[in-house]
Amino acid sequence: MATAVAVLINGVDVASDVSVGNSRKRVVLVAATTGYQTSMFSDAAERAGIDLVLATDRCHVLEDPWGDHAIAIKFDHPAEAAEALGAAGDFDGIVAVGDRPAFVASVIAAKLGLKFHPPAAVATCRDKFAARERFRDSGLLVPDFYRVPMSESPAEARFYPCVLKPLGLSASRGVIRANNDLEFTAAFRRIQALLEHEQTNDFIQVESFIEGREFALEGMVAGGRLEILALFDKPDPLDGPFFEETIYVTPSREPANVQTAIAGTTSRAIAALGLTDGPIHAEMRVNERGVWMLEVAARPIGGLCAKAIPGLEELILRQAAGDDARLLMSGGASGVMMIPIPREGVFSHVQGLEQAEAVNGIVDVIITAKQGHKIVPLPEGSSYLGFLFARAATPAAAELALRTAHEKLDFEILAALPVIS
């Protein structure tokens, strides 16, 4: 589970040779916007010699506003989206960026006869309650859990400590720990307020808190069989009250027996959900009782974090197109830090970029926050200030580089002025 540096197809390094094969494959990418990850897939398709067709939920009235020839579809009507793609010609494969696009892609794939995860399986991945039920029924370790209609206002939980979470949001949005009745009521009301502005499930899930170390696993599934691409340690403890992720480092420093247990549990979780073909991103916790699967998403790791696995997008595209491709692994370690937002406000500027970039082991510093834009931390927020990327000889050195570079950055966040109506 080391750092990926190139892509092989039938044993040939194709990272710099797109002439493998006699004809260009055609793959559709379902994505919410033309964001960072969409651009990364576009670049990977160019390197791989694949014709990539974008299908996005942009306004169908505007005629190609970004000049990318994307097909406008409506995510709320996936069957219609399948018809639109079917009228656009033949495709060799389909990929998706994000949880909602993954479901749309699954419906399109089923209609057009393309390999992808089944719609029912993707829908279960997006529903934390349904996924928990599948894990429990398959004999996996699960916490105590139940769900409450968002319209209710319970004053206490059935057990403490507990974690409250919306059923349909991702990336730890709305996830809050409560240790007593007062914290539980406050957390429930806070999630209610968040969900008023979201098109998501009308339930809030309550789970007993799982002690332990947290990990993320990136993999590809083919015919129901899991191939692990990377296992990331999350060295920062995630004990609440919120669960903002910061550092991912691979390869994992856990002993072989723990990594084997994580791999086996993830494979069982994939089978329980019914996932069959395509990328997956899984999160889990490990303690003395074993491996507890938190979730499995029917999509690759989100956003710019994918840069921690060079070649990932090209691998996904090639496998979707039916090529027998795999990642060429090398020694060393890589890591990414999702720079957390310390407080709500308006982003002004950042100092120390050159100093951070000069830290030994740092390969890239990307600030995604825009000057003058309001930024909101978890649990309501859904973004970061930016990303740090590191490569080093060991995971410990990669983690140290990320922490050292972060210390060099000084973000100025101005107080947001209140809105007067």
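^ that was protein a. below is b, sequence first then the tokens
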Amino acid sequence: MQKYFYLLLLVWLFCFPSMMLAQNYQLVWSDEFDSTQINLSEWEYEVNGNGGGNNELQYYTSRSVNSFVKDGNFSITALKESYSGKAYTSARLHTKKSWQYGKIEARIKLPYGKGIWPAFWMLGTNISSVGWPKCGEIDIMEMIGGTASSTGGDRRVFGTVHWDQGGHASYGLNYSLTSGKLNDDFHTFFILWDAERIAWYFDNFQYCVINTQPAGLNAFRAPFFIILNLAVGGNWPGSPDASTIFPQTMEFDYIRVYQNIPTGVQHSSPPQVYFELAQNYPNPFNPTTTIQYQIPASGLVSLKVFDVLGKEIAVLVNSPQESGKHSVPFNASHLTSGVYYYKLQSGMYTQVKKMQIVQ
């Protein structure tokens, strides 16, 4: 068990970049759903009852009872009804445009209940020629409704990628609310995706990242399109039961795509500010040390210390700070000798380093 933990920890540390240049993300496409109907020049409905390859139970339609725009929001609604040989109906649609890299974001109020499976995700545009999973799949957000502890039910979301590596390969993590369910309010879900990594965020908190630089993950260095759907049943969630309430609705406030737009070089440009967490000094130490870091933009900063089991030991910073360099002392006289980790978070950036206390 201990060996497995350290392996996971090494993967976690490896995936965090040692230095990240602040990205100049600019909005390149969005749907704010401020008209009276879905824009069919931007979106295409997928109408079928083939179960999505997952033995799902719904028939996807383009009917207004299964999807509609109202009061600035776009809703996909799953109904319990007999339709074309299926016991449920819902909707699935994808963008006609595609993008390679960027910040892909949506603000969503999720449905709930056993057998309910909403998703905000992406597929490679070459799926028709190479098939799945060679095309690559990026699941920005999935939820498996209900109360099952194995899936986290109505309070947990999953971020996952799928690709081909001599067969189907996948990697992902999840994030859970501490109380309530995701249907209680809107939440923001997005990825930051570039040629080196994909990172997943829930309400601006990064909970998963994968290094995509290995050649086997080349699928994620190509254009992808966006898919929205609300499935009912299937291999993962199982079927609805008597506790499942219908209709269930997945409600979108907006979908937005940002990309890193080079600003060009200006003779009077100030020095670029990087996100960087420095190695604490001295290290090893007894009982005090200093942690230095710099952040590219003003905002909320979190700097915390954890033991090797992931337990939070100390909160050194949890407040707004100006961009630039910062220094924080740490007194560990209350801790025992051993290895600890300190984690810096600021906006879309996260970094972790190791420290050693010798008492």
